[in-house]
Amino acid sequence: MTARQKTDVLVVGSGFGGAIAAYHLAAGGAKVVVLERGPWLSGEEFDHDFKFGSSTTRVFDFVVGDGMSILGGNCVGGGSVVYFATMPRAPRFVFERRGSIGRRMWPGSITRDALEPWYDRVAEALPITPTGWDEVPYIGGVFAAACRAAGHTVNPSPSAVDTSLCTNCNWMMSGCRFDAKRSLLLNYLPAALSHGAEIRPLHEVQKITRTDDGSYQVHYSTIDEVDYRQHTGGGVIEAKIVVLAAGAGATPVILQRSEADLGPMPHAVGRYFSGNGERLNTAVLEDEKVRELLGLSRDEQKAYKGYQIGRGPVVASWDRLDGDLPEYERFSLEQLYFPPGFGTILAQIPDADGPSWFGPRKKEMLRKWQSWLTVFTMSEDDNEGVFGPPPPTGNSARLSQQLLGFGALSYRPTANTLRGWEVSDAAVKQILEHDGLARVMPWTNDVIGAYTVHPLASCRIGDDPHSSALDDRHELRGHPGIFVTDGSAVPGALTVNPAFTIAALAERAMPGIVRAARARGVNVVYGAPSPEGATSSRKATAAAAAAMVGG
């Protein structure tokens, strides 16, 4: 029997876009239900292990597309559970980007100055704090010293990590068992629960239909807790407002599958996908050169060999985040720890004269894995990703019980995107091969295509109805009452880690969603403090919020 229920607001996904919406709407008096496809884990359940069934396989979703693969969160808390908690604000020039459409991509109402107070609200809620040089672990210090020696500036990154609780175990991608990483499990989500919101894990939304009175019905399947390919049941929930926050790799798929029932979707649904211009390079360090660079070592036998120690990313070079540079030549570089697995497969052999990512020389390279240093590039791409027809259920055709599936995303990098990768690869090489410190090669695209951990822009906001699926209030064009607040709403690559910007945009969208909910008969108000009760950041957003909420 199919279960049927009613609520005021149905939120799909519990990452930044979903958690922020759930909190504000529940705190304002609305009845809120959150459906999350993945499991609900807490600190003690986050494992330091790669075995099947550990948190590492349970909380990730890795979807291989045609030319682009996406690694994202699949759990209550979404990407905040598996992110590295590096939280820079997007550079000012990002909001003026023209990109592939040849005109300003962002809505005219959103600039860096306009978004600044919404950034402040998120910073207060998590909170986000600067990182001091005395808190940078050894691996970050090595990258910083290499940048300085090669003539580049470098800085510790702002972070949503409580360093007094962090043990530098470097397992934070599998969830933080010490609650040092300020994921949404520690702020917005418990605050939403305290105001009566319901969070239902292992619920995968399949499509949305419309009722005769203009409300929506959200159709879901329940998922087996071990084998995510198995559906154990299903149901329908009717809601006056639907907030989609399933991620840039899933939100457009849900909307595409809903088109037969809801009617035509905006042209931009499932188009203009951006991988945030991401690129990874692995350097194999010469330990003696590290000793010379730093004038010290971990001990007499180990000048470096600290790849897995610490946390990452903690240090970044932002020299190329210069608005005066040409578009597609602007990027950031971060020291990154990427756990064994993908790195051991995709890292290429420096100066290979034969196979670049497998064979005897790759085996020798793997023996030196503790002397690796991985650099993460975020640049500007051309929003060239397009989603094909959706699979029958979910956002991919699942290959394994957990983690892995094949999706309908097609991505063919343009000359502009390739130029951005080429320029950034050269910068990494110049820094880490300076004075013989290391040998560097980018990860190969031959196995799974390009790859991103920060998918964006597949249902983006904008002023042009042809090139944006959402208006500047995040409402889906032609479908009043459906809003999108996750990374798919971001218009394009940000050149930095996007979580802070996604969260700030979600905060900014809340007054307008409250206004729409009230117009549709929901008794809800806007004006909740941050999840911990702080109110100082509300002053800067009060006028904008009042204008969006209206009478």
What does this structure look like?
The protein is of the alpha/beta class. The protein has a single domain, classed as FAD/NAD(P)-binding domain. Helices cover 25% and strands 20% of the residues. The protein has helices at 16-27, 55-58, 79-82, 112-125, 138-149, 188-194, 251-262, 287-294, 342-346, 360-367, 415-432, 499-519, 538-549, and strands at residues 3-12, 32-35, 60-66, 68-73, 155-156, 198-200, 203-210, 216-223, 231-244, 278-285, 315-317, 332-336, 372-378, 386-387, 397-398, 403-410, 438-442, 450-452, 482-484. The strands form 3 sheets. Strands 1, 2, 6, 7, 8, 9 and 19 form a 7-stranded mixed beta sheet that branches. Strands 3, 4, 14, 15, 16 and 18 form a 6-stranded mixed beta sheet that branches. A hairpin with a 4-residue loop joins strand 15 and strand 16 (403-410). Helix 1 runs parallel beside helix 12 (499-519) and helix 4 (112-125) packs across helix 12 (499-519).
